[in-house]
Amino acid sequence: MNGTLTSNWNSRSGTYDVVVIGSGYGGAITACHIAQAKLKPKPSICILERGMEWIPGMFPDEPEDITQHSLTPLNPLGLYEYRLFKDIDVIQGSGLGGTSLVNANVAIIPEPAVFEQDPWPGGITGNMLAPYYERAAKALDVGQHPRGMDLLKVRALKKRADLSPNAKFDLLRIAVNFKIDGIDPESGVERHPCIDCGDCVTGCNVRAKNTLYMNYLPLARKAGVEIFTQVKVLFIKADPNGGYQVHYERFTPRHNLPETGIIKAKRAVIVSAGSLGSTEIMLRSKNQGLKLSDTVGTRFSGNGDFFGISYNSNQRTDILGFGNHPNDPPRSNVKAGPTIVGAIRYDRNKPLKEQITVEDLSVPRAGVIPTRNVLSTLSAGGRDTDPGDLVQELARIARDIQFDAGGALNHSMIYLVMGHDDAGGTMNLKNDKLQINWPGVGDQDVFGRVNSELFQHAKALGATFIESPVWSFFHSRRLITAHPLGGCPMGETSHSGSVDECGRVYNGKSDKEIHPGLYIADGSVIPTSIGVNPFLTISALSEYIAECIVKELKK
Ligand SMILES: Cc1cc2nc3c(=O)[nH]c(=O)nc-3n(C[C@H](O)[C@H](O)[C@H](O)COP(=O)(O)OP(=O)(O)OC[C@H]3O[C@@H](n4cnc5c(N)ncnc54)[C@H](O)[C@@H]3O)c2cc1C
Ligand code: SF4
User: Fold this and answer.
1) Ligand 1 atom at minimal distance to the Cα of residue 533
2) Tens of pLDDT along 38-95?
3) What is the pLDDT of residue 392?
4) Which ligand is in closest contact with the Cα of 210?
5) Distances (CA, A) of 39 to 2, 12, 253, 380, 551
6) Which one of 140, 197, 325 would you pick to mutate in the ligand 2 pocket, going by the greatest count of ligand atoms within 8 A of its CB?
7) Comparing C-alpha atoms, which of 503, 470, 527, 534 is closest to residue 30?
8) How far is the CA of 338 from the centre of ligand 2 (A)?
């Protein structure tokens, strides 16, 4: 199937058996499994996704195009969303396939101890989830980069692990295709192998990244799911005749004012709009009269995300992405690799709260010039771990004026780190706009510890250490997360959670009473930080929730 997956909006029906909101991991996985289950009679299913359909080849790879395709109030169909809140900012994607379109592909399983914490329901454990992790990993076709150890950034990352007794280095499993060149027999989608271009987080134009657009979504479409894009769900109401009303607004690129309407769901609604989107929908639905647990809007976590930079080191790192332009002459001798390829997991024998994971990042083509300009400026305030090399350092900075493999940025490392915060953020609506409040989050111990460890990374390379600028600027201690979690947390009862272990939404009237047919499946149900990249965990939980929904629909 190489055409578009989106159905014609005018062909929509006013009522479906099942309505799925959002097309990220939660939405794509549940829609696909319900459609593929041998249910009799076969339910009608639609997905409502607020973003546009992005066909590989359309993804921006120049700096000005990134700005043009950012989601803002004036551009509700933008692909890249940067949400500014008081204490923490959130980066996410908007489009058919959700944040899978612009993420870094890392598929990793957290420590089993994560699920032993409160308020995870007793039924969810590492062992219990194991087969669901495997199912998701198989569908997303995850595996190690076959030539990962040849990448210079991976060697630079490992250098620190080799010096530290409590560090374990590994090539990560990533959702990237290195084999198929042609039509994938399973999904019917055209695929090509990765060319190591480093553009995964702006969108893969090569058809190598295993986004949801390459697996669950085409399979869902094949199994009869109707997919509607540019449809933003506002809230859900119980329908007086049974089932639910899903209230939406629909944007088209040509019209500034959205069209509004209602689609009815007779048997099930699955809310899968991500941590921010689902919480916003549920809070608004509560304001519209839907009874919910008081925990809706609680347990927001940034997954302990943190960043830091080793700038202008003595080791070439090849982190400069070139996009789908492999013949660009100056870039031809650089192999950026996928955005993230390796990881160091620290202190796995210590209590969970002390464990951190550090990963390498490449800069996508569109980010090379802005990153070079920002880092060369910030380096003035950085800490040089090897001042003896000043002449060489200045020579590399001088070479960095144009794209130059010998320049300072191509001798730098940008690290993504995950640890454990206290998931203490709260979300509410103010004038109908989502707010996140989390006073003092950046002062939590974990971030100071991570910052010290990243200094050691810089030292191992003889680099200048640049602290996360948003965190260190005037001691502001602001954070940025690419892994928003929580907001509609799972819990054993409606006192500790908004949904049960099957994603069924508590109605708040008693401990266990639920709204029949109303589910949440996505990152919003994760009630704690998990300390590693989260999509495989979101996918495993969604596989499990899908199984629960199919069982209910069979009754
Ligand atoms: C730059 C970046 C890199 C990342 N790298 C990794 C990585 O390497 N590994 C990893 O595990 N995780 C990574 N992540 C995070 C990961 O992609 C997310 O955790 C995951 O996609 C969340 O899945 P989800 O189903 O909860 O939500 P999403 O994938 O965000 O999907 C939610 C969907 O709902 C839609 N939506 C929102 N509101 C509405 C509404 N009101 N109506 C209709 N639709 C709506 C959104 O447009 C979106 O399509 C990264 C994230 C970013 C931003
Ligand atoms: S490195 Fe390039 S080709 Fe490979 S998955 Fe990422 S964007 Fe696609």
Assistant:
1) 11
2) 999 999 999 999 999 999 999 999 989 999 999 999 899 999 999 999 999 999 999 9
3) 87
4) 2
5) 28, 22, 37, 63, 10
6) 197
7) 503
8) 5
Q: How far is the CA of 56 from the centre of ligand 2 (A)?
A: 11
b/e string for 246-283 if b means 16 or more Cβ within 10 A? bbbbbbeeeeeebeeeebbbbbbbbbbbbbbbbbbbbb
Q: Which ligand is nearest to the CA of 482?
A: 1
Q: Among 452, 528, 440, which residue's Cα sits nearest to residue 476?
A: 440
Q: Is residue 23 in contact with ligand 1, taking CB distance under 6 Å?
A: yes
Tokens of 80: 């890249």
* Residue located nearest, by CA, to atom 27 of ligand 1: 274
User: What are the tens digits of pLDDT across the range 204-236?
Assistant: 999 999 999 999 999 999 999 999 999 999 999
The rounded distance, in Å, linking the Cα atoms of 289 and 282 is 11
Ligand 2: lining residues by beta carbon, under 6 Å: 176, 194-200, 204, 206, 208-209, 338
pLDDT value of residue 160: 95
Q: In what order do the strands lie in the sheet with 80-83?
A: 80-83, 88-93, 479-481
Q: Does ligand 1 have an atom closer than 6 angstroms to the CB of 539?
A: no
Span 130-175, pLDDT tens digits: 999 999 999 999 999 999 999 999 999 999 999 999 999 999 999 9
In the reported structure, the alpha carbon of residue 24 is separated from the centroid of ligand 1 by a whole-number distance in angstroms of 6
Q: What pLDDT, on the 0 to 100 scale, is given for residue 1?
A: 42
From atom 1 of ligand 2, which residue's Cα is the shortest distance away?
338
In order of start, what are the domains of the chain with their CATH numbers? 9-554 (3.50.50.60)
* 152/148 Cα distance (integer angstroms): 9
* 321 φψ region: left (φ > 0), alpha (ψ -120 to 50), beta (else): beta
- The pTM of the full predicted model, rounded to 2 decimals, is 0.97
Rounded percentage of the chain residues whose pLDDT exceeds 90: 89
Return the ligand number nearest the Cα of 89.
1
The residues of the chain scoring below 50 in pLDDT are 1-2
CA distance 310 to 265: 52
Q: Which residue has a Cα nearest atom 8 of ligand 2?
A: 204
Rounded Cα–Cα distance for residues 445 and 466 (Å): 19
Q: Is the CB of 484 under 6 A from ligand 1?
A: no
